[in-house]
Specification:
The complex is a heterodimer of chains A (283) and B (279). Chain A is mostly helical and 283 residues long. Chain A has one domain (2-280). Chain A has helices spanning 2-17, 20-47, 57-85, 90-95, 99-102, 108-142, 150-173, 176-203, 206-218, 220-231, 238-246, 258-280. Chain B has 2 domains: 2-87 and 143-216, 3-Layer(aba) Sandwich (Rossmann fold); 220-263. Classes of the chains: A mainly alpha (283), B alpha/beta (279).
Chain lengths: 283, 279
């Protein structure tokens, strides 16, 4: 365990010294500033609009805005996850950084777990912090609060942790550039799957909904995001819910009680695959 | 105890055979030089020894433990041919990290001693990115020595050094050998190997083509005799023939001023073993 912490600490120190976190913090502040500006304007301009009977305008605007911020948070978390791990194995081996470490008694699996622990904890904390900041901004701009707060935050953090694991697996199999592209392609595939599901629901197309559902189970980070998204308005009913689901960032899908278990199994599988591939790789 | 025991070691990369049945032993405190042209399998052998590459067949044991096992990795140190330390770390931080990974309890005393050994005491807080290649190479040797390993794998440790740096590393290798640490030294520098190694192993196309002490490998080429008639080269004889030849020459009325036994250099042995075209 202490070896895992040593490697995790080493990876964190590297990010600190290379000022990765400074860049990330600056970009995040810029995003939150723009989000605050947009949220205030959106709430102000819809304040005078009288919605149809049975539609709560504040909920529709709040859920759509916060859904947008959740998507942006997932995207920023994915960028951080990818850049912290994309060259963790093959990239570092090609640069000669990896060999002096893995010839030490700690072993390759421990090294990989250390890299995972470091990147996953940073990404999970980061995503949670941005989520909570956006939540406070939404509340102060329009007085709207999601129906569920904690579970969507946990699901968002779990989604990014899955992406860290996928990126680590990619770093064993692919060069840094190829891995970065591959993880963003997976992220994009998940996103498209989610959008297909929303279109399928709007058009009442079972085929599209089935494709979206299978994509989300295959890429559970998308399922976790969708599940978290739908929890924001879990208590809304009737026309308000219908209006929320019309927007690209408003609906989401419920994936049930199996989702966290499947995600945990998926995470364990990805890490086991990465460890097995790393153990077999000649350096 | 045998520091490294390699038996029938083979490694294939696809259809290419990097090692084709290598046998090798390193005794405790022995410094063995590994020579051979590019692609002979030297780095592959070293990497198998420290667990970076898995053999296709055969066995390699480090201090009695299978190469690559936790025990073997704990008993050995390694300096790669192409290595890099994080530029943001200082020399002292690099050693501290490796102390944690080897569970060394040497603390600041061990780090100070190692930095002094490689002549980097004054640069202990300097960032790696601000160090010259030669300094990084010496830091690499210090890193390999963290945790008091019993066997060192050094892959081209002087490749980036100037002549003065090479001399420093040579002195360092003698110091390491003096401490009873076994060393497998992979090098292209024949003179360096000849000067510091107890034994030399020459690889070609993944096979051992010559092995022995540098003095044993250097065969007698004949003797050169200076007489009143000038210099004469007598081929096919050795040191043991000198008294007889001198007596015969004196008996024949020649004045003998000097005799020199000619031996082939390690370079000639090497070229004989690998062939000129392989160099």
């Amino acid at each position: 365990m202490s070896d895992v912490l040593t490697i995790a600490g080493y990876a964190l120190r590297e990010s600190l010294r290379r000022r990765v976190f400074v860049v990330v913090a600056l970009l995040t502040v810029a995003f939150l500033f723009l989000y605050r500006l947009g949220a205030r304007k959106a709430f102000e301009e819809t304040a005078g609009v009288f919605p149809p009977e049975g539609v709560e305008a504040e909920t529709v605007v709040g859920a759509t805005l916060f859904g947008l911020s959740m998507f942006a948070t997932l995207f920023l978390g994915t960028v951080l996850a990818v850049f912290l791990t994309l060259g963790a194995v093959r990239g570092d081996a090609e640069r000669g950084l990896l060999q002096p470490l893995v010839v030490r008694p700690l072993g390759r699996t421990t090294f990989l777990l250390g890299r995972f622990a470091g990147a996953a904890s940073v990404c999970a904390v980061y995503v949670t912090a941005v989520y909570l900041s956006a939540l406070l901004i939404t509340r102060s701009a329009g007085g709207w609060t999601p129906d569920r707060i904690v579970t969507p935050a946990l699901e968002l953090a779990f989604a990014v942790v899955l992406l860290v694991a996928l990126s680590l697996l990619g770093s064993v199999l692919l060069s840094s550039t190829a891995n970065g592209i591959a993880v963003f392609m997976l992220f994009g595939a998940g996103l498209v799957g989610g959008l297909l599901g929303q279109i399928g629901e709007a058009l009442n197309s079972p085929t599209l909904e089935r494709v979206a559902e299978r994509t989300s189970w295959a890429l559970p980070f998308e399922a976790l995001y969708q599940d978290g998204l739908q929890r924001l308005t879990a208590d809304s009913r009737g026309f308000t819910r219908f209006a929320v689901e019309l927007g690209p960032f408003g609906g989401g899908q419920a994936y049930g009680a199996w989702l966290p278990w499947w995600s945990a199994l998926y995470l364990a599988g990805v890490l086991a695959l990465a460890a097995a591939a790393f153990a077999r790789r000649d350096l | 105890m045998t520091a490294l025991a390699v038996r029938g070691l083979e490694k294939r990369y696809g259809s290419v055979g990097a090692l084709r049945g290598v046998d090798l032993e390193l005794e405790e405190g022995e410094l063995v030089g590994l020579l051979g042209p590019n692609g002979a399998g030297k780095s592959t052998l070293v990497k198998i020894g420290c667990g970076l590459v898995r053999p296709t067949s055969g066995t390699a044991q480090v201090c009695g433990a299978p190469a690559g096992s936790r025990a073997a990795r704990g008993a050995s140190g390694y300096l790669a041919e192409l290595f890099r330390f994080p530029g943001w770390c200082s020399g002292d931080e690099v050693l501290r990290l490796h102390q944690r990974l080897t569970r060394s309890d040497g603390g600041a005393r061990e780090r100070g001693e190692l930095l002094e050994l490689v002549g980097l005491t004054a640069a202990r807080d300097r960032k790696v990115e601000a160090m010259s290649k030669g300094m990084q190479q010496r830091l690499g040797i210090a890193q390999a020595l963290v945790g008091s390993p019993r066997l060192l794998f050094l892959d081209e440790p002087t490749s980036a050094l100037d002549p003065a740096g090479r001399r420093t590393v040579r002195a360092l290798l003698e110091e390491i050998r003096g401490r009873g640490i076994s060393v497998l030294l992979n090098s292209h520098l024949l003179s360096e190997v000849e000067l510091v190694c107890n034994r030399v192993v020459i690889l070609l196309d993944g096979r051992v083509v010559a092995a022995g002490r540098p003095g044993e490998l250097a065969r007698a080429r004949g003797i050169e005799v200076e007489t009143d008639e000038g210099l004469r080269l007598i081929e096919g004889v050795g040191r043991e023939d000198v008294p007889r030849i001198v007596a015969e020459l004196v008996g024949a009325g020649r004045a003998v001023y000097g005799v020199r036994v000619l031996r082939s250099t390690l370079e000639e042995v090497y070229l004989d073993a690998v062939g000129e075209e392989a160099v």
